[in-house]
Amino acid sequence: MTETSTTEGTGTIEALSLVPKAVGRQSMKDFKSDQEVRWCPGCGDYAILAAVQGFMPELGLAKENIVFVSGIGCSSRFPYYMNTYGMHSIHGRAPAIATGLAASRRDLSVWVVTGDGDALSIGGNHLIHALRRNVNLKILLFNNRIYGLTKGQYSPTSEIGKITKSTPMGSLDAPFNPVSLALGAEASFVARTIDSDRRHLTEVLRRAAAHPGTALVEIYQNCNIFNDGAFEALKDRESAEEAVIRLEHGQPIRFGADGARGVVRDPASGDLRVVTVTADNEADVLVHDAHATSPTTAFALSRLADPDTLHHTPIGVLRSVERPVYDTQLADQLDVAIEQHGKGDLAALLAGGDTWTVVG
Amino acid sequence: MTSQVSSPAEQADGTDGNDTTVVGEQRRPGGTKDVRRLDRVIIRFAGDSGDGMQLTGDRFTSETASFGNDLSTLPNFPAEIRAPAGTLPGVSSFQLHFADHDILTPGDAPNVLVAMNPAALKANIGDVPRGAEIIVNTDEFTKRAMQKVGYAASPLEDGSLDGYQLHPVPLTTLTVEALKEFDLTRKEAERSKNMFALGLLSWMYHRPTEGTEKFLKSKFAKKPDIAAANLTAFRAGWNFGETTEDFAVSYEVAPAAKAFPVGTYRNISGNLALSYGLISASRQADLPLFLGSYPITPASDILHELSKHKNFGVRTFQAEDEIAGIGAALGAAFGGSLAVTTTSGPGVALKSETIGLAVSMELPLLIVDIQRGGPSTGLPTKTEQADLLQAMFGRNGEAPVPIVAPRTPADCFDAALEAARIALTYRTPVMLLSDGYLANGSEPWRIPELDELPDLAVQFAQGPNHTLDDGSEVFWPYKRDPQTLARPWAVPGTPGLEHRIGGIEKEDGTGNISYAPANHEFMVRVRQAKIDGIDVPDLEVDDPHEARTLVLGWGSTYGPITAAVRRLRTAGEAVAQAHLRHLNPFPRNLGAVLERYDKVVIPEMNLGQLATLVRAKYLVDARSYNQVNGMPFKAEQLAATLKEAIDD
Question: Which domains occur in chain B, in start order?
């Protein structure tokens, strides 16, 4: 990624300007709680936890003003391991709970940790509404394409035909593509990253943190017990060359060995497709614009990946645009109401207009 | 013309030994008609749901309130916004009872029915006693309109209304005629017929009219033509009463000055009083108010009202669904707001899991349930008390929740403050059980002075509260106050108190995840003990004659039960009355009170939910008396039932 990071130094992110700054230097250790981490050995969640704990000091925020809210599922144990304020809530509802917290406390940095079942099945409604509202939340969606905590049923991101305990003859329903879904739900910030790529994951977190409004970060996460190797195509050095498209704002979208492959727009359909880059078509290779007003191209990029082989999976920030933030506007309305009507006078409110008096 | 007299059978409240009758007659100076004084009147406005009957009733109520009568109202309307015109299901009505003394109910039977069409007549005539006055809009009594509701012959001509004082008035024609100077289509002019009717009734009962004139001017401030047309229709109705020979008498109902303690009063509906109670609680607790809500009848008016008061620091959040409504409220509670969610029965069902989470996390949260007829969608616009057991038990696991129920529309104000007191003191979700009758009904309310409001000050946790064996000071989120058993409320932003809470069972003290059997047993019992130990006032019993029969009620049945008890006592019967405001925990003395009586009767607008609780807890053979027709009890009927119990 080539954009200059806005988070160098500490406590300087504009979107978090109302959150009190840390006093003194913080280290990763400050963000580790005293609780024993209880994920299965080898779970991708460990890598994500380490990346988040390692990244937090960079924000330079008072850690008592950081809150992690989660739902239910393996990933939702996350808040217990962060030495911040935290809530491990109920299945699917974390975005709703976090919305109330963020909308009433603008001095907090509120993070939601959720999974593919939590966010896209039982909590699908809350997720899309949080995205359209653009509340100041950072949503980390750990996608392992399986139900882990309930021991291995297919999830709303599992590929069709998935053989699981609940689908011995193969699952029948088409999966969600979380990035496409978020773009369709008017998300102002959508990114995708991978648990095992700590540098990329950290950079995406950095961008998400700096975004004013709701940020959705899909993190491909390996469940080594129930869906091991689900993202192997993106991790294996050889296959990754053809599978992973690293998006960088302002750069031509090229990938493969020596950038041999590129994404171009099909002039006939307007859709995107992958080509082998030649001298003739090099000029046609699409330049990634994460800040494009229209989500159309970001959506087309999100559709490039083959849901079965994961070939041509874009990672990085697909969309990052600024639009009004719910909690900011809500606070503004309160200020305007006071400007227009004065600070609330309870005695006057209770008395209302039409009264009569009884004297002794 | 005969005078308006109510027989004992129609008498709603029996406030003294005498029947309500004409108490005086005088000729108004300068007037040409008789003026008679009454001690109370029940009027019912009825028409199509598009006829503006609720507005008409509201205006008459405001006039009556500002005149200083005691009053009680019963709006009754269909769930459809515009039900098919002229049909029985489309009839909307508004009943108003007003008096020169204190009254308790909107009244059993109207003394006056205003019927704007045949459907309104047919739907309401069954409630109107012989001798009452009926004003009908004859213009709407066309052959077709009458056939639509099954009148083979015109009830205005077939003698079926002979026992009533019928006033046939061509309301539509008169209204259109009065507005002929205006540049309005006939249809537009016809719309003002409700204001004509209001003007006529305002003349009949000597209501002050300034309020309505002011209201019309401000309501139609942007459409001065429409404002002027409505004013003209309103005044034309008044003048019609003054001049036409059909109305020979007008009535005065003196202000109820003696019935009220000294103070300043206003008229208030239950939902408005509840909204004001919440804003007041926010001020008294010095916490910002946060409402997470999803629109649902009959609770939406609270969302509307609170949304108007952002200058009190009130944040209202219209959520994507009921679950998100309470979820957002719970998130705000975690952040230190006075958090509220408002709904009706179907919404409570959806919120159950989150209420359980609030029980487990022990955070203050108000759940306001404006009950309506159920199950499922049920009767959205009608009243019922059938969510008591849902409020009590409708969650997985042992999840006790305190329950507070207001008894009258104005009492919704105090009940909201009381629910907030319990939530904040004991760090618990609290159910506030109002209902459709309280929500939409209205009555005079003595406006409290601010220094009369309870102190709800809250202390957030500020630092460590526990010393470990090694001498280090730590914060334990589940270390309880020994008196209240409440845990500390440590809000994000407080340095050093970072902690994690959730729905998984927690270890006593530390709040860390614990699956230990003995710890769970302890935590279940301590959560129950906290709710059981809530300090609630003792139950007061009204028993002047050492009765053997006790009638026990809760919530909105207070008015009808009290009216029935007054009747019985007037008739020389001894009956004791007690009314529960706290349904969980019950007042400490409830068991002792029940033991004092041979018979206990529990009237409820459900199939015996309080009776079930009382029988289970106190082994008392309580008799249940139930009504689930979507309407409040009638005092007469209740009195008859209680009489049977007394005589049994």
Answer: 22-255 (3.40.920.10), 265-452 (3.40.50.970), 459-535 (no CATH), 541-647 (3.40.50.920)
Split at pLDDT 50, 70, 90, the class of A15 is confident
pLDDT of residue A14: 83
To the nearest whole angstrom, how far is the Cα of A103 from the nearest Cα of chain B? Answer: 8
The total number of residues shown for chain B amounts to 648
- Nearest chain B residue to A343, by CA: B311
Q: Tell me, what's the pLDDT at B6?
A: 39
pLDDT at A3: 43
Task: Give the domains, in start order, of chain A with CATH numbers.
Answer: 14-251+288-341 (3.40.50.970)
Residue B257 confidence (pLDDT): 81
Distance from the B500 Cα atom to the nearest Cα atom in chain A, whole angstroms: 4
Q: Which residues does chain B have with pLDDT short of 70?
A: 1-32
Predicted local distance difference test score (pLDDT) of residue B520: 98
Cβ atoms B433, B299 nearer than 8 A: no
Q: Please tell me the distance from the alpha carbon of residue B343 to that of residue B485, in angstroms, as a whole number.
A: 29
Which tokens in the block code for residue A343?
């600070």
pTM of the entire structure? 0.93
Measured between alpha carbons, how far is A53 from A32 in angstroms, rounded to an integer? 7
DSSP for residue A290: T
The tokens describing B620, both together, are 């008392």
A108/B492 Cβ within 8 A: yes
Nearest to A255 by CA among A297, A217, A311, A296: A311
ipTM summary value: 0.96
Cα–Cα distance measured from residue B616 to residue B167, given in angstroms and rounded to the nearest whole number: 55
What is residue B216's three-state secondary structure? helix
